[in-house]
Amino acid sequence: MSAPYRRGYTHTKSKGKESTVVCTYCGRQVPRWKTFVQYRGFRISDPTLRKQIDPRRVSGFSSKMYVCPSCARYRGIVQVGRSRKSRRG
Ligand SMILES: [Zn+2]
Fold first, then answer.
1. Could you tell me the distance, in angstroms and rounded to a whole number, from the CA of residue 72 to the centre of ligand 1?
2. 53-69: per-residue pLDDT in tens?
3. Which of 8, 22, 46, 82 has the most crowded Cβ, counting Cβ within 10 A?
4. How far is the CA of 68 from the centre of ligand 1 (A)?
5. Ligand 1 centroid distance, CA of 67 (Å)
6. How far lies 85's CA from each of 10, 48, 73, 82, in Å?
7. pLDDT for 11-43, tens place per residue?
8. Cα of 26 from ligand 1 centre, angstroms
9. Cβ neighbours of residue 29 under 8 Å, at least 6 residues apart?
């Protein structure tokens, strides 16, 4: 997409319904544009074990999870009121 990236809550005006995802924490259905994406993965602390395992395979263990805004705030995934530097994407 080459359009200028605009931040903020915008509904997708495209045809069809907006895609919704289920919040990992509360299980609520939230529109996808509202959610925060987190990656949960295995963290292997054992160095020998880490050597044996292909990092690509390890990444396969990680799961993408969607977090609704309220949960994100509650869990400290997003900080409210801090600098507006957002590292998205
Ligand atoms: Zn939630």
1. 7
2. 776 666 556 678 899 99
3. 22
4. 4
5. 5
6. 19, 38, 16, 8
7. 656 666 678 999 999 999 999 999 998 877 666
8. 4
9. 20, 21, 22, 23
Q: Given this model, what pLDDT does residue 81 score?
A: 63
Euclidean distance between CA atoms 53 and 80, whole angstroms: 38
pLDDT value of residue 48:
82
CA 89 to ligand 1 centroid distance, Å:
21
Q: In angstroms, rounded to a whole number, what is the distance separating the alpha carbons of residues 31 and 64?
A: 16
Ligand 1 centroid to residue 47 C-alpha, Å = 35
Under DSSP, is residue 57 helix (H, G, I), strand (E, B) or coil?
Answer: helix
Q: How far is the CA of 23 from the centre of ligand 1 (A)?
A: 5
